[in-house]
Structure prediction request, 150 residues.
Amino acid sequence: MKRWMVLVAVFVTAVAIVGCEWGSVTDDVSGSDGTGGGTVTNVVPGGTTNVISENETAVYNEALMVGEAGRTTYSGHVANVPVVPGSMRVRAGGFYFVDDGGGVLAGSSAGTAGTINYASGSWSIDLGGKDIAAGETILANYIYQTSSTP
Prediction:
C-alpha cells in the first residue's frame, strides 16, 4: 500500500511541475517562427518594441496619456500604424481594455468601453463615470504591421 501512495505522490508532483508555465525573460532572442522564415523575438514586458515577424512589430507599455483628476474619458493616437486587429490592450489605472478584433475595446468593468481604429491608430476609452489618479499613465500594448508583404 505504501508503494502505491509513493507512486501517486510522484505522479501528482510530476504533473504539477510539467503543468506549470515556465518562462524566461530574455530580450531580442531571434529564431525561426516555424513557417520557414521570419523572426521571433521573446518579449520583455516593460520594453518598447520587439520584432515578432518579418512584417509585424509588438509595442509594449506605450504611454498614451496621463490621467487627470475627475476625467473619465480619454482619446488619442498610438505611435505606430496600422494596428493588427485583436492585438490592442489598454491599461488605465485599474481599468483594462481588450481589443475584440472588430474595433471595440471591451472594458474590464461594467460601463467601461472603448474603440480602436486600426488604420489611423485613433483610440478612445470611457471609464464609465469613474476616474483614475491624476498622473497615472495610460499604457497600451499592441502589434502593428510594418509591411504589407506576408
Observations:
- Residues 4-46 have pLDDT under 50 and may be disordered.
